[in-house]
Amino acid sequence: DDSLEAAYVYSMSYGYSLTEKIGVYAELYGDLPEDNKANHFWNTGLTYLISNNVQLDATVGSSITKGQDLLLSTGVSFRIPTK
For residues 39 and 64, is the Cβ–Cβ distance under 8 A? Predict the structure, then answer.
């Protein structure tokens, strides 16, 4: 919004390769607004490397503090080679 209050944002994540193509990750993140209640979240997910340039991912997560009940997402990432 257009509020002038400061907000501090944090994120901590860890990823691990199960195989050359499959990975897992976990993340804690949130914000600490200057004049409001803090918001804390977590998520975890899987990645699958289709090729050196294409990766799929799926995520599930939720709020630690009251707010977001459930996060579900999927995605695809493309790496554009420079040469």
Answer: no
